[in-house]
Every structure is written in C-alpha cells, then in structure tokens.
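Researcher: Here's a chain I'd like modeled. Treat it as a single chain, no partners, no ligands.
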Amino acid sequence: MLQLLLLAAVGFWAGAQNALAGGGSFLTYPVLLFAGLDPRAANITSTVALFPSQIAIAWSGWRSAEGVGSLTVKGLVAISLAGGAVGALLLLETPVSFFARLLPWLMLFATVVFAFGQKIRRHLPAGQHLPPVALGAIQAGIAAYGGYFGAGIGFLMVAALTLAGQGVRAAATTKNILAAVMNAAAVAIFAFSGEARWPFAVALAIGSVGGGLTGGWLLLRIPERLLRLGIIGLGSALTVWLFLR
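Model: Modeled as a single isolated chain. Structure tokens:
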C-alpha cells in the first residue's frame, strides 16, 4: 500500500509536469524501474498510466488544434494513430534483453531533445516552412517512436509543427492532441499484451489526473525553468545509471 501511495504521488508530479512543460515519463519510468519492473514492462506501464491525464490535457484545448496546409488535423490524427500502433507492436516484438541494451540510448536521445527542444524551436528559420508531405512523414516517424518509447515526443512534435508554419501556441495545443492519439493506439495494444502492471498503472494514473488538473494552478506559482532543469537533471542521471548498470 505504501508503494502504491508513493506511485500515486509520483503520478501527481508527472501529470503536473506534463501540463506545465512536458516530460512526465521522465518521472514515471524510472520509479517503475526502481519498483522492480523490467525495462519493457516499465515502459508499457508508464504509457498506460499517463494516458488518462493526456486525454484530460488534450480535451481542454482540442478546439485550438490546427492542420498545416493540405494536411488537416484529421490527417495528422490518422498518421499518429497508425504510427503509435506500429511502434507499440514493434515494442512487443522486441526482446526484453535487447530493449534493455537499447534503453540507455533512447533515454539519452530523449534527454537531449528535452534539453534543447526550446532552443531548436527559437532558431527555426523565419519564413521557411516544411511542406505538408514532409510534415506527414516526420509525424509518422515521431508517432512510431512515441508508441515504442515516447519520452521527448512533445518537443519533437512542437519543433516539426512550428517548422511547418504553425505558431508556438497552436503547435503546443496540436501536439497535445496528437500525443494523446498516438498513445491511445499504443494503450489499446498494451492493455491486452499482459505486460502492463495494472496496480502500478492505476496508482500512477489516479495521481497523474489530479496533477494534470492542478497544472494550471501550479503554472502561476512554479518557475518553468526550475521544472525543466529538474527534469533534465533527472534524465541525465538516469541515462548515466542505465549506461553503467
């Protein structure tokens, strides 16, 4: 019971983090590893656990989502669903031992994306936009990565959408919708995989929904820079630990 209460507390923090700056999986994933889950089961359980809070966050801003040129929101949603499903199926076919060896590199990649996502976005060339076809291809790759591992997808999507011509606010709203959609495909597959650890997932999910709902309140009181630095530090430490263990 104490373990489940601690997981709910971490879930609350992760939900608030997703509402504020993104990166909630940097919190839920390592705590599941420390709880004794193998890397693949921890990844699957984390994805399932954060899904309810992602739905709540996406629902609150779905009217502000935008497409890009001929690529409509519905088109982006369809691409994200397909990519998320492909990534989830690929994960289930990946041996646990191979995923454990791949994991440090995935975490390193996600940490770098999280750390430099905003800087990359600020240096995007003005007046130069990705064509809709290129955005669709990039989104398919991001969605497959999201279904497979997922950490850092928000920053990848915001970078791609702004490079395609969306404003930052519209891109942030659209990526919330697409993140929820790609994870919906993954969760639908993971739910029947037998690898999700449901007591842990439910505890994290309850906490994450509460955290997501209070994220707006926290946004007025906690500096985002402090949150980002904490997540970057956690991701860096976890990456080093995964390489050394």
